[in-house]
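Please review the protein record below. Tell me whether the encoded fold seems credible here:
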Amino acid sequence: MTWEGWTLVVVLLVLVLGWVLWLLASRVDRLHRKVLRSRATLELQLAQRAAAAHELAMSGALDPVESVLLADVAQRASASAPAGVVHDGLEGTPDVEVEQVSDVDRSLVESELSRTLRAVLESRAETEPLTDNPLATEPLRRLDAAWYRLELARRFHNAHVAEVRRMRANPVVRGLRLAGRATMPRTFDMDDARPHR
């Protein structure tokens, strides 16, 4: 084979290698975007569950102590929304600035709302079930739907984060820094178990 033939082979190999690396970098970018979309969905579902919990607290179906307690925790969950779901800087804000915005750990606040809801709903199930109260029918339906969607949104978000982490663990992706300067995404872990009714 002549030197022109070898040159052509080398050029073709470089082009194929460049195309494969471009595909890998594009895949990493798409996965990061998928995490951001699932995080936005998770934010929405957290807000809807807090609103449904607040609606249940204001429905008149609970006794005053349960109502005040649930409304307070739901309000704190709603107020923690500007802090963001995860402080990993993936949205483009460095970790330092995000941490200065709020000292609130969103997972703790949302877990507290889950525990409060479970305590209220399970204690009422033993004495006077809320499902028998017409004032609670619609708020309970909304709460149940919002809670179910929240569980799904959190699972999808965490699955997408795991997919990004697996892809970024690839030696080629890591060695050639195909993820650019994007930070490593983190999962959102909280207590989202629904009550046993």
Observations:
- The chain is about 70% helix and 0% strand.
- The two ends are 78 Å apart (CA to CA).
- The longest helix spans residues 3-57.
